Amino acid sequence: MVIDVFDFSQALVFSLSILITSGGLCVASATRHSEGKFSSSSLVFCTNVLKTFANLSVFAYVKSAELFSFDKELSPSGAFNWRYAIPGVLYTLSDNIAFTVLGKINPAIFSIIWNTKTAMVAVFMRLFLIRKPFSYLKWLGIALLLLGPAIIEFGGKDGEGDEPEGDEPEGEAKEAAPIHWHFICLCGAAVSASSNVYTEYLLKTYSTDNILWQNTQLYFVSLIGSWIAMASQEGLFHVFNLLDPEYLFNTFNGFAFAAMIFQSSQAFVVPYILKYIDNIADLYAHAGSVLLTTIVSWMFFNLQLTWYFTLGLTLSLMSLVLYYAERLFPDSLNAGEDAEDPKSPYQHRSPPDSPS
């Protein structure tokens, strides 16, 4: 099996692809139609508020109604685990980078560059989680994934020439330094990759903790980090302005509220995938979002599908096939060398109360 967990895992991965695509497009639309009314840090802060209270509310409801019979205790010590501060801060940083960059470059190009986190996650997992050598197919897949976005960036100047002429000074400003914003996007992908790997480590190390309680701890720390980021940009007491409903609705447009909903929905799906499956399944979802974002951007954002872009996208998709070839075609390739160590705590596992 590609993913040795319950049958609903494929639906989770597909749902996450849709949420990632929808969230990214809404963030891009929100920042480009905001007319400077709000900063990305304010949007990240409000999103983390929604994530935290949503997880806390569901956790309180589940514990009070006793809907689940697994994870009886909050944690072995019954206390807050401050190790979640590390991925919480990293997630806050990557969210701020993503929200800012999405207002500067095309959503499809952002999606492909951000997808380089696949290669970074693979390397981090190899170094810190999975202590076994990668096959040549995996390394070739990683190389192609790094090459694909580079070709897209190299052809960015040629892609500008294919755009229709017109008086769009704002658009020209956004394309004035593509390498600058693409590099920032790449750094954000690295931060996101490291936070994903460390989050998987924590979720599986403390596997007896209730996943909703783990989510609440993670996003509570992210909430504090996002408030600090917002305070540094907007002022220490800007949070009180967000408590005013009139100010809130006059500041954020419909795309911003939609982005909050989609991003908060990911907060329920991603940790569940990381705890009971692994980062590989999460990367499948991000890979699927690349194709979905490209199609939507071509339809609604006037994305010019140049040869550079098409080649870069093709290489990115080929890299995913090569990287997961041993899982996709176990009968054709020797998957024994890539088998999981039965003693490793980081192997695929089924959630409690589900058939193995």
> Helix amount, in percent?
over 70%
3D shape: globular
The SSE order reads HHHHHHHHHHHHHHHH
Biggest beta sheet attributes? none
**What's the average pLDDT?**
74
How does the helix and strand content classify structurally?
A: mainly alpha
Number of domains: 1
Number of helices: 16
Q: Tell me the total number of β-strands.
A: 0
Low-confidence sequence ranges: 1-6, 68-77, 157-177, 335-343
Distance between the termini: 12 Å
Radius of gyration: 21 Å
Portion of residues in beta strands equals under 5%
InterPro entries: EmrE-like, Nuc_sug_transpt
Membrane topology: Multi-pass membrane protein
GO molecular function: pyrimidine nucleotide-sugar transmembrane transporter activity
Subcellular location: Membrane
Polypeptide structure, described:
With 356 residues, the protein is mainly alpha-helical. It has one domain (9-66, 80-160, 170-338). Helix content is 70%, strand content 0%. The protein has 16 helices and no strands. The protein has helices at residues 9-32, 40-65, 85-102, 107-114, 117-129, 136-154, 156-161, 169-174, 178-205, 211-234, 238-242, 245-251, 254-276, 279-300, 307-323, 325-328. The longest helix has 28 residues, at 178-205. 44% of the residues are buried.
